[in-house]
Amino acid sequence: MILSLLLAAAAPAMVIVEEKSVVRREPPPHGKIGMSTAYRISDVVPNRTMEFRKRELHVGAAIGEHIIDHDEVYYAIGGEGEVVSDGRKARLKPGMAAYLYSGANVGIKQIGKQRLVLIIAYPVSAKH
Q1: How far apart are CA 30 and CA 10, in angstroms?
Q2: What pairing do the DSSP bridges indicate for beta strands 36-39 and 105-111?
Q3: How far is CA 108 from CA 5, 29, 52, 117, in A?
Q4: Using H for helix, E for strand and C for coil, what is the string for 1-21?
Q5: Hey, how many other C-beta atoms are within 10 angstroms of the C-beta on 107?
Q6: How far lies 75's CA from each of 52, 89, 94, 107, 115, in Å?
Q7: Could you read off the pLDDT tens digit of each residue along the chain, which spans 128 residues?
Q8: DSSP label at residue 27
Q9: SS3 helix, strand, coil % of the chain, rounded to 5?
Q10: d(C-alpha 89, C-alpha 3), whole Å
């Protein structure tokens, strides 16, 4: 019981981030194809070990193909997209997730008439 309390006390306090405090309009990463709205949620968290972001890819926008050095998840919560991993393409709709593996060449593009809204999560790189 005492050990549990000591371990719990050693953890940093939780951080609450309101998305409107971290929103910015910017071209998507990896090619700057089109425009996006980025909610860089984890950027304001001290000593973090993971990235957690929401990104809206505007009509015609894409996160260009790039090789990742970590596993990464794209989880769709709105709109539709086409995700690619090492040349294999798949449609992504709300409620669907693409789990992408380290070493893969990945990207995603918005398709259709609505913005593609994603939650993106991955571990912080060693260079961060």
Answers
A1: 38
A2: unpaired
A3: 44, 11, 17, 11
A4: CHHHHHHHHHCCCCCCCCHHH
A5: 22
A6: 11, 15, 8, 13, 14
A7: 555 555 556 889 999 999 999 999 999 999 999 999 999 999 999 999 999 999 999 999 999 999 999 999 999 999 999 999 999 999 999 999 999 999 999 999 999 999 999 999 999 975 54
A8: P
A9: 10, 45, 40
A10: 49
The two tokens of residue 92 are 């992504």
Amino acid at 116: L
Q: Can you give the pTM of this predicted structure?
A: 0.88
| Two tokens, residue 80 | 């539709």
Contact 100, 94 (CB under 8 A): no
